[in-house]
Amino acid sequence: MVIDPGLREVSGADIARILDEAARQGVPAFALSTGGRTDQEAFFKAVQAALSLDPPLKAVRRVWEALADSLWDGPHALNAPRVVIVWPDAHPVAGAQGDFEIALDVLREMVTSLAEAQYTGGRPTRVSVYIAPAANGRQHPGV
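Below the sequence we write its predicted C-alpha cells.
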C-alpha cells in the first residue's frame, strides 16, 4: 500500500491497513476518535487527545484558528518527513457542512502548508489524512 500525502476518504476496513503500513515504514501515525460525532467539541477533544499541539490549547476556548496553528506546529515539531492521521469514525466527506466542513478544511490546510518548504524552514512534512465514515453510519447529536 502506498501512503500518499493529502486528505482522502477511505473505507473503515482500510484504516487498519493504513496504520499497519505506516508502522512498517516507520511513519508516525495518529488516530482521531470522535465517536461518530463531527461537531467542534468532539473534533477539538479528539485532536487534543491524539496529537501533539504546539502551543497546547486552553480547554476553555475553542477557536478554529488557534487549533489550526497548534495543529500545524505539532506534526512539524516531530521532525518526521511524513505523518499519518486517521479519523475512522467520521462522516462521508462529500456533502460535509458546518463544523465537519471546517474541521476538514483545517486538516486540508495543514496538509498543504506543511508540504511547503517555504513555510517549514526547509523541512516539509508530507501529511496523509484518511477519513473513514463510521461503520454504522449513525449520526450522533451535535453533528
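The chain is about 40% helix and 15% strand.
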